[in-house]
Amino acid sequence: MTIPDLQNIALHSRFMREAGFTLLMASGILALFLWVPTAPPKDMKAASIIIATSTVPSAFADIPLEAKAAIVYDLALKETLYEKNADAQLPLASLTKLLTVYAAISALSPETQITISEDAMRAEAPRAFSAGQTFSLNDLSRLTLVASLNDGAAAIAGMIALHQDRSQHKALAGAAAALNLTQTYAINGSGLDVSEHISGGYGSARDLARLAGALVEKAPDVTTATTKKYAEAKSVDGTVFKVKNTDPMVDTIPRLLLSKTGYTDLAGGNLALVIDPGIGHPIAIVVLGSSVKDRFTDGTALVAATLAHFAGVPSL
Question: Who's near 45: CB < 8 A, 6+ residues apart?
């Protein structure tokens, strides 16, 4: 049975405060080493050369991770800075929702109206909606990603399938193929386990890093919402919804561009982040197959190592 992200987070609030403190210290030290321009440099090739000559691979040496797989991926240079079993195909849990939203935003207008169906209401918690409520795609995507809402994901996946006149599985497969995500496929839009042995979505850490980066590029207004502690949106009839982020670290991670958590019995604890170390240079960090608590420990360690890497120091 799926264990909702929101329930897991409440059990570890003390741990998360400690993890957040570590990141705040890391970002403070980073400021001593890294000049942060007000806008990305016009000559990204030149900027990339400067970055490459000031980094130290030892920042990622001997990082102890609970996760089965992980990656730190430079989205600007398309280079891997750190990896652990990065191409292993593993259950994605709610990270599948990144694919669902990407597929929808690629196929539909941001203002496309999506109605919560009776079928969507049958999804396991976390849920927030009632059958018949209608939202724009962008608003429903924000709420769904921030609070990892399974009813929202089911409604979005259903709309994609209806629009393309094919099954949800094939619609999501088409989006994965468009990004050449060779290890990624989804049975449903939420990532909920289908049975004791079959997950709702599978993929590799490398694929998820590229997917997260593509979503940040395509829909920054949606992904920005995932970096806040709360998201708020209105249904078409004017009902206001306010939901809490399933990642309690969002207000402690410097230059965060995207955050998404995931947890099911089959997947364990998953986490996807995109950060910008301060140079218009997005970096994706993905953790797969950790635990409820250690997905955040692993994420903290990889963020700190990434900041040290770009600061030109072995560690923070």
Answer: none
Domain membership flag for residue 153: yes
User: What is the per-residue pLDDT for 24?
Assistant: 47
Q: List the beta bridge partners of residue 268.
A: 264
The per-residue pLDDT for 57 is 53
Residues of the chain predicted below pLDDT 50: 1-22, 24-26, 29-56
Task: Give the model's pLDDT for residue 72.
Answer: 98
Residue 91: C-alpha distances to residues 8, 26, 121, 286, 290 (Å): 18, 31, 23, 13, 11
CATH at 82: 3.40.710.10
Q: Output b/e per residue, 131-164; b: 16+ Cβ within 10 A.
A: eebbbbbbbbbbbbbbbbbbbbbbbbbbbbbeee
Cα R_g (the chain), whole angstroms: 19
Residue 108 domain-assigned (yes or no): yes
pLDDT the model gives residue 315: 81
**Residue 136 sits in which domain range?**
5-311
Q: Which helix (H) or strand (E) holds 290?
A: strand 283-290
Q: What is the pLDDT of residue 71?
A: 98
Q: Report yes or no: 183 and 149 within 8 Å, Cβ to Cβ.
A: no
Residue 258, C-beta contacts closer than 8 angstroms, at least 6 positions apart:
212, 215, 216, 223, 226, 227, 272, 273, 274
Residue 46 within a domain: yes
